[in-house]
Amino acid sequence: MVTRSTRLRPFPCPTHNAIIPAFARLAGGQLHLEAQPLAAIEDMAQSADAVRSHLEDHRYICSSQIATAVYLAYQLRKPVLIEGPPGVGKTELAKTTADMFELPLIRLQCYEGLDEAKAIYEWKYGKQLLYTQVLKETLDEVLQGARGFAESVTRLHEFGDIFFSEEFMEPRPLLKALREEEGCVLLIDEVDKSDHEFESLLLEILSDFQVSIPEIGTVKATREPPMVFLTSNNTREISDALKRRCLHLYIPFPDVELEQRIINARVPEIPPELRRQLVAFIQELRDLDLKKVPAISETIDWARTLVLLHAETLDPDLVRETLNVVLKFQEDIENVQGEVAALTSKVVKH
Predict the structure, then answer these.
(1) pLDDT band (50, 70, 90) for residue 164
(2) 3-class DSSP assignment, residue 77
(3) Which residues lie closer than 8 Å to 218 by C-beta, 6 or more apart?
(4) Are residue 89 and residue 191 in the same domain, yes or no?
(5) Is the pLDDT of residue 169 over 80?
(6) What is the DSSP letter of 8?
């Protein structure tokens, strides 16, 4: 239940005996809640190295900088603003963190024109209208015994408060995240696609884990504040006010060694030599003047494609036939066609 004075619980200690409900699963037609001891979550987040190890157990291969950001986000209860080019694993980091800690993932996809009605809450206008009609039909009964106009208006005002109560409110992602009693991971995806005005709506929840609703009051996180991840593709500058409230993490394209580890984790069936050639070819493409250079997600897709085609090594014809998996613009494909033979020969002979 939403209250005006709910306080945040102190951060959990490793000896706490509480449990955190995890994802609900359906088994035998019944809804079950899996739970994980809080001490186990504390153990996962006891150090940056521990976080990195557990992320890799969930097939998210990352640098020590990324693991440190997740560690600090949990220990300091600070939002993390993740910036970087598209497809480098920003959204996947939030999703994997939720899986790792076995916490619900609540996602808000940002877009131009996003406002509080879609992000925080809105009123159930249809239900309000229905109840207003019921009130109209029973108006004589409601006003029975009222003396004069002033007393009648006072009685009607009592019903106005009911119409703008929690019963008539539809929570959206930000409010839902605050109402998760045992915590959650809140992903505010592609915040750079929203308007500057929407950033202002986020400041209160990012700094104090609360939102202000004029008709109800201030709604604070019920018990555990959510872990908040914001992602940005750098399509526009994020305001200083939002950045001040967040830890900053920039995820660049990976180097050769890290990308090979990522492919090995995500597509383990690919032959080692083909994996080496594939990653080397992708690295060469990123040095070209392309409209959109291939991201990690394209590398993974290409690896899966080559496995399906039973490839053992790269050759120019195979690369040309599958180039559309890696490059998303026809202009880029046409520009690279003439370089395919030379690039393929370079990475195969290396």
Answers:
(1) low
(2) coil
(3) 4, 210, 211, 212
(4) yes
(5) no
(6) P
86-95, 126-135, 170-179, 207-216: which range is least confident on average?
126-135
Helix 330-337 to helix 316-326 angle (10° resolution) is: 160
Q: State which of 250, 277, 311 marks the end of a domain.
A: 250
Written as six digits, the tokens of 44 are 């996962």
188 bridge partner residues: 108, 230
Highest mean pLDDT: which of 89-93, 157-161, 168-172?
89-93
Q: How far is CA 56 from CA 40, 64, 300, in A?
A: 17, 11, 16
Paired tokens of 112:
């131009």
Confidence (pTM): 0.78
Domain identity same for 84 and 186? yes
81 near 228, Cβ under 8 Å?
A: no
Q: Is 21 a domain residue? A: no
Place of tokens 């955190």: 20
Residue 334 domain boundaries:
256-349
User: Nearest to residue 276, comparing CAs of 254, 288, 295, 259?
Assistant: 259
Residue among 313, 315, 310, 339 at smallest CA distance from 327: 339
3 falls within a domain? no
CA-CA-CA-CA torsion for 252, 305, 274, 294, nearest 10 degrees? Answer: -20
Do both 272 and 320 map to the same domain?
A: yes
Residue 214 CA from chain centroid, whole number: 27
Q: Are strands 185-189 and 247-250 parallel, antiparallel or unpaired?
A: unpaired
